[in-house]
Amino acid sequence: MLLSGCSFFLPREAGIGEAVNWDDLPGWREDKIADAWPALLSQCTKLRKKKPGWERICDAADQLQAPTDKQVRTFIREYFQPHEIIGTGGKPDGLITGYYEPILSGSLVANERFAYPIYGRPDSLLIIDLAEQFPGLKGKRVRGRLIGNRVVPYYDRTDIDGLEQPLKGKELLWIDDPHGSFFLADPGVWSCSVTRRLKHQCWLCRPKTDTSMFRSEKS
After folding, report:
1. Residue at which a domain ends, from 49, 65, 90
2. Domain that includes residue 124, residue range
């Protein structure tokens, strides 16, 4: 069998590829890159102590007060090197996940503007760990409430927002965005302009299509 005239093209392995030039990045010169500066500074509080080389970078970053886009680009060029990201099967496209901190406007008192409540965890909520009785269901939990001596499903979003308002009195604060709780669909951290920084934990477990309500605590 002669294969001298054949060529084999194997896809590149997914991951970090070769170094590239900053000027080759789409939007590098047009983006308002200074908007990302606070994120870099916040990361420095941990990275400078844990990652080799970051102390020098963060010390230099501390010297720049409210830098312009041009100054940030110069800084990034000096301390960082972009690399090509190779997708699955060697494709140029891929999926990168990320996290961010939603910022909401709120009030500790309801009024015409701030009319949409964020609730604390209700006392009537029961969380039943099924693994205690059925080991095969480890990690599965049921959230419900008591009616007499029966456990029934907990209120859904329609019930909570309905006329009966079963959680009335458990409001932590009110926000001005009727869709604001949508951005709190996973445990994490969010900010409210009147309550500083809060951490939240989803207490009403529902499919992603139901944004539910959240238990929040001041950090």
Report:
1. 90
2. 103-218
